[in-house]
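Is this the right way to post structure tokens for a design question? Let me know if I should format differently. Anyway, here goes:
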């Protein structure tokens, strides 16, 4: 079959379905999509709330709990202990299929009856305020955080210790405001770097010790804004700017100028073959994938690892032959689902684990051959399933904009249990309240602190040991004052262990609330959207440090797909030219 252009049912923009896509859809027996890849990703992400917490009671044990579901939501919510306990059985909520009502309406009704987990947090100690969390100790406000200790205010954190306000950081310790870093120690405000020790404001660096404001440097020590210094001179300059906030800001501005003058690689695609997207490692035959590791023969992945033969999957690991999945783990042949783990042949289901051959189920564990949580024999299940699929086409669910949702479409956004600005969708596809309302999307007013601000952000300038211990009893005002789209809490407190970290690292207390700090870090990352561009390496324009293959002809002829939009100010090089300049 040839490439086919279609118009997105949601945004009305054109998109293309390639022959390989048609082959995949044929293999898993689903119709081609009617929404474009971007809209499909946005739709999936509206079903994941990581960081919007609410206080409420467990609907089984009545204990006070923290949950991603607000007290006024229509869902029954259990604490983790109760949800995994044996005092209830999700199979008791089973329903007979009703052929006089759209399937998705029946499924939506089931979701409001089957209890939901307050948080996804298991095997952790003293880490109650964490979500999508596994095996952590003494962690606070961590999201997608695994196997970490004494960390706070971070997202996508793995095997870290004493790291605060970090994003996409692994195997690091004593780091602050670092983004997409690995194997780093005692470093602050570093991005896309590896193996740094005592470094600050570094970008795309590797193997550095005691460096400040460096870009694209490899295996060096005592560098300042990409220039070597003697140890004594470096230490003197660092101490000088730490003691003077104005000098720090001047050095930060110089670093930003250097950042724009140094070539950036078009995409961070490492040890991968035939791959397009950004932040891809150890993968092959992957198209339009972002933050993906060890994937094969897949397309439109976001934050996935060890995936095979899958399309349109977000935040999933070690799965194969998946389509339109949000939050999964070790699945095979799963489609149109949310938070299903260790399962196979599961469709249109939510929060099911260790199961197989499910359709339209919620909260099931170790079950097979179930529809709307009702148990069937294998023969009954196989006979009923094609009838339901046909019924979904004959009687599609109509959303608030009168768009039909037939078999092969992911859940409509309006079925999501969360408001748009509570979800991960707001991080990648940011909308204002007005825009969200115009699209018919739910919007929740952020939880604001009900106490009096005692320290205004402009007065929170003390650093390290100069910060008084009494600050833990104060209320700090957020600089944004709730005038942003970042779920600003308007005020926040400093924890004792947080203060100890700032003193040890000689840092000032923050002037933005945790939510605003998170969204600021997210905006530092490139968008998950590709643009076709040419390499900007040109001997007539830029002075390169090494001889490139296209010298002395002038501009490099290479073209590529990159997440850097054409109007960005950065200098973008192809992989070959970039490697020449950073070798």
């Amino acid at each position: 079959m040839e490439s086919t252009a279609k118009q997105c049912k949601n945004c009305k923009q054109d998109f293309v379905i390639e022959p390989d896509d048609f082959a995949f859809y044929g293999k898993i027996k689903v119709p081609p999509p009617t929404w474009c890849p971007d809209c499909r990703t946005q739709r999936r992400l509206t079903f994941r709330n990581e960081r919007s917490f609410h206080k409420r009671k467990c609907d089984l044990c009545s204990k006070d709990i923290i949950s991603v579901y607000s007290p006024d939501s229509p869902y029954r919510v259990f604490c983790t202990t109760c949800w995994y306990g044996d005092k209830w059985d999700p199979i008791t909520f089973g329903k007979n299929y009703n052929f006089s009502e759209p399937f998705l309406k029946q499924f939506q009704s089931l979701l409001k009856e089957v209890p939901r987990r307050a948080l996804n947090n298991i095997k952790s100690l003293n880490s109650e305020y964490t979500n999508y969390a596994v095996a952590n100790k003494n962690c606070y406000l961590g999201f997608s955080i695994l196997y970490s200790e004494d960390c706070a205010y971070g997202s996508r954190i793995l095997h870290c210790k004493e790291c605060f306000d970090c994003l996409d950081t692994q195997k690091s310790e004593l780091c602050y405001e670092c983004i997409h870093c690995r194997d780093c120690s005692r470093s602050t405000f570093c991005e896309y770097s590896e193996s740094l020790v005592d470094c600050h404001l570094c970008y795309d660096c590797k193997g550095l010790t005691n460096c400040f404001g460096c870009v694209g440097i490899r295996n060096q020590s005592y560098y300042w804004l990409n220039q070597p210094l003697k140890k004594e001179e470096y230490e003197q300059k660092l101490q000088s700017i730490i003691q003077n906030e104005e000098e720090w800001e001047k050095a930060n501005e110089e670093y930003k100028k250097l950042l724009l003058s140094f070539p950036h690689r078009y995409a961070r695609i490492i040890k991968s073959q035939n791959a397009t997207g950004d932040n891809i490692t150890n993968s092959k035959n992957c198209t339009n994938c972002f933050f993906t590791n060890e994937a094969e023969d897949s397309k439109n992945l976001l934050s996935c690892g060890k995936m095979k033969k899958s399309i349109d999957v977000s935040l999933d690991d070690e799965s194969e032959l998946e389509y339109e999945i949000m939050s999964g783990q070790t699945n095979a042949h799963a489609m149109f689902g949310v938070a299903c783990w260790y399962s196979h042949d599961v469709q249109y289901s939510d929060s099911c684990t260790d199961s197989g051959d499910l359709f339209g189920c919620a909260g099931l564990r170790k079950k097979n051959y179930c529809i709307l949580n009702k148990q069937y024999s294998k023969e009954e299940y196989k006979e009923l399933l094609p009838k339901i699929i046909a019924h979904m086409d004959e009687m599609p669910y109509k959303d608030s904009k009168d768009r039909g949702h037939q078999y092969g479409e992911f859940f409509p956004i309006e079925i999501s249990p969360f408001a748009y600005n509570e979800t991960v969708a707001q991080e990648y596809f940011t909308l204002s309240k007005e825009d969200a309302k115009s699209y018919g999307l739910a919007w929740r007013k952020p939880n604001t602190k009900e106490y009096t601000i005692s320290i205004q952000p402009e007065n929170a300038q003390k650093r390290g040991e100069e910060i008084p211990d009494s600050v833990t009893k104060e209320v700090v005002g957020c600089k944004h004052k709730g005038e942003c789209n970042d779920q600003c809490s308007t005020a926040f407190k400093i924890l004792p262990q947080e203060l100890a970290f700032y003193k040890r690292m000689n840092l000032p207390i923050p002037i933005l609330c945790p939510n605003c700090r998170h969204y600021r870090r997210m905006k530092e990352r490139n968008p998950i959207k590709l643009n076709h561009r040419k390499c900007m390496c040109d001997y007539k324009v830029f002075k390169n440090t090494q001889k490139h293959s296209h010298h002395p002809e002038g501009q490099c002829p290479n073209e590529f797909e990159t997440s850097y939009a054409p109007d960005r100010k950065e200098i973008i090089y192809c992989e070959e030219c970039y490697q020449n300049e950073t070798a």
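Format looks fine. Someone answered above. Worth noting: Residues 245-261 form the longest helix (17 residues). The chain has a mean pLDDT of 95.
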